[in-house]
Structure formats: structure tokens, C-alpha cells
Amino acid sequence: MTDKKKTSGRKTVRDKAVRVKTARGRKNSSTRWLQRQLNDPYVREANRLGYKSRAAFKLIELDEQLGLIKQGTVAVDLGAAPGGWCQVLNQRGADHIVAIDLIEVTDVPDISFIQMDFTDNDAPDKLIAMLDGKRPNLVLSDMAPNTVGHPKTDHLRTMALVEMAWDFAFNTLEEGGHFVSKVFQGGTGNELLDQIKPHFKTIKHVKPKASRKESPETYLVAMNFRKPT
Ligand SMILES: C[S@@+](CC[C@H](N)C(=O)[O-])C[C@H]1O[C@@H](n2cnc3c(N)ncnc32)[C@H](O)[C@@H]1O
Fold first, then answer.
1. CATH architecture designation of domain 56-225
2. Which atom of ligand 1 is nearest the CA belonging to 86?
3. Rounded to 5 degrees, what angle do the CA atoms 154, 124, 87 make?
4. Domain locations along the chain
5. Which of 21, 40, 58, 181 has its CA 20 to 30 A from that of 187?
6. What are the per-10-residue average pLDDT scores of the chain (229 residues)?
């Protein structure tokens, strides 16, 4: 997808950028957010195709590049709301999808969802119970904490979520399974990466095109899990 260019016949046309006027009572940051949403081709495409979020295109891209989702995949989606990744998992053949988020996921059929904080002590056991005795082939985490604008604090909070997601993946993944996690600030911390590496055949950091250039997010993709003996 190109940014503002569309090709129609032999002519190249440019969509007019939508400008949002500042409204009384609306903060400048909200106006900027609204303007960015209205001019974002992925947001428009997500609306057109009925995806709950532009994030759907990130998983589509990762799957197209790396072949993560197979027919019959059992998947766990951590930080699933509003549900774009669940929709993509469904469309691409996953047949048991367990999802969790602080916020409710609505109108996404064929998923088993729990509204809960993943950092709660009982969250992992609840998710395991929802897997009905199956081990996941795919553990995905798109969780992002609410940032406070203090880089060190934000980084620590994010890393804590990645570590917890990894801990869950390590304890549950099926042999040959994959773990995908959003990470920030140039990648996974070295210590954590050293823990994860020996358990997978391949490790990559990928920034999908759908991930905003200005965002420090990338995705850690760890493929072909080797179960500890
Ligand atoms: C970028 S959004 C996920 C978008 C999703 N992948 C999609 O395709 O629609 C990040 C989500 O992580 C969730 N999240 C952040 N911290 C969480 C936590 N501790 N437990 C559960 N969900 C959490 C947020 O509520 C938010 O909905």
C-alpha cells in the first residue's frame, strides 16, 4: 500500500490529505491523533476490509514473510483488543484462539476471550484452562503498557510485559511453535534475548511496514521452539 498515491488507469492520483480543525475543548494532541488517523492508509484499509485495527496488517505481513499461521494452529493472543490479530488468525486457519486483554474484544467470533490483566497472578492458569489441554503453536504478544513519557520507566514496563509473555510461551509452547512479541527501543534486552535464543532455531527482529516509522516498536519473532528436556 502506498501512502497517498493511488494508481488509476494510467494516471497517478493523490488522495487529498484530510485536515482537522482544532475544536474548542479538544487538545492539540487529540487533533493531531485524529488527523493522523484520518490520513493513515492502513486505517482506511482496515475500515474498508472490516478489520478491528490497523495492527491486523502487521500480523498479515509477519505471516506472509515467515509463515507463522498454519491450518489448525492453536494460538494465544496476549493484548488482543480491539481484535485485529484475532480476525487475522481466524482468517488464516487457526482453529483454537485464546485471547486476553484489559479491554473487551467485541464482535470477533470463534475466539475464547478473557478480559483480565495478564500480569495478574492467575492469568496464565486461566489461559491454560481455556486451551482445553492443548499446547499453543503460536504465542503472540502485542501488549503495550500505557506510557508515562519517562523513557526509562516506559522501557522497564514494556520489558516486564515481554518477560511475562516469554515466561508464558516457555511454559506452554508446543514443540516447533513460535513466539512473537512487540518490543521497544531497538529490540529485546540482551539478557532476555540470551534466555530466549537457545530455545529456538531462528530469532529475528522485524519491523513490519504497517508499523509507524516514528514508533520505536519492532517485533521479536522466535521460531521453532525446542521444548526443554
Ligand atoms: C496495540 S494494542 C493490541 C492490538 C491488537 N493486536 C489488534 O490487532 O487489535 C495493545 C493492547 O495491549 C493491551 N494490554 C496492555 N497491557 C496489558 C495487560 N497487562 N494485560 C492485558 N492486556 C494488556 C492493551 O489493553 C491494548 O489493547
1. 3-Layer(aba) Sandwich (3.40)
2. 8
3. 80
4. 5-39, 56-225
5. 40
6. 37 51 65 70 94 97 98 98 98 97 97 98 98 98 87 82 97 98 77 94 96 90 92
